[in-house]
Structure formats: structure tokens, C-alpha cells
């Protein structure tokens, strides 16, 4: 890439294992500094530090905000976050019953 003022990333880390995702995400974070980036992602780890997160359902924006704001709303974003990070968060906080798959 030359040095685009706008960068569009569509599921840039979706096919990566956890370690590779972390390395690629670190590189992406450096790449998007001081520019506009549109990041399409299902893995929330990709967008946790975004300035503005839009949640789309059926092609419509249903929620908008920063990570912490969206968690406080208790809507779809929080639901998805709990699915993706809930088991890890519960384990870090001393347990809770984590259902087995």
C-alpha cells in the first residue's frame, strides 16, 4: 500500500489463528494511525479500540458508539461480546458457570 488517506479492511483477520491475528492486528493498528479506516469485522477483537463502532442488523445501523458505550447499552454488541469473550472473562473473574459445548 502506498499511503492511502482512507483504508477499507473487510474481515482482515477472519481466517487467522489467535497468535497470527494478534500480530496482524498490531500491524493494522500501526497502519491505520492518523487516517480514516472502515473495518468490517465479526471478530470484535479487531474493533475494540475503534473511535466509532456501528452495529448492523439486516442492513441497518442499530447501535453506534465506542466499545464501553456499546457494552453499557446492553444490546446486540454486548450480546456478541459476551459470546466471544464471556468464557474468558468469567474464567478471569474467578469462575461462574461456563456451559460446556
Structural descriptors:
single chain; alpha+beta; Rossmann fold; two-stranded parallel ribbon; two-stranded antiparallel ribbon; disordered C terminus; ABC-type oligopeptide transporter activity; Type_1_exporter; P-loop_NTPase; Protein containing ABC transporter-like domain
Describe the structure.
With 101 residues, this protein is an alpha+beta fold. It has one domain (6-91): Rossmann fold, CATH 3.40.50.300. The chain has helices spanning 18-31, 67-73, 76-92; strands at residues 6-10, 36-40, 53-57, 60-65. 4% of the residues are buried.
Q: How much helical structure, as a percent, in the residues?
A: 25-40%
Any idea of the CATH class? Alpha Beta
Low-confidence stretches: 95-101
CATH superfamily, by name, is P-loop containing nucleotide triphosphate hydrolases
Structural class: alpha+beta
Strand residue percentage: 15-25%
- Read across the widest sheet, the strand sequence of neighbours is 1-2
GO molecular function: ABC-type oligopeptide transporter activity
GO biological process, one term: oligopeptide export from mitochondrion
Protein name: Protein containing ABC transporter-like domain
InterPro entries: P-loop_NTPase (IPR027417), Type_1_exporter (IPR039421)
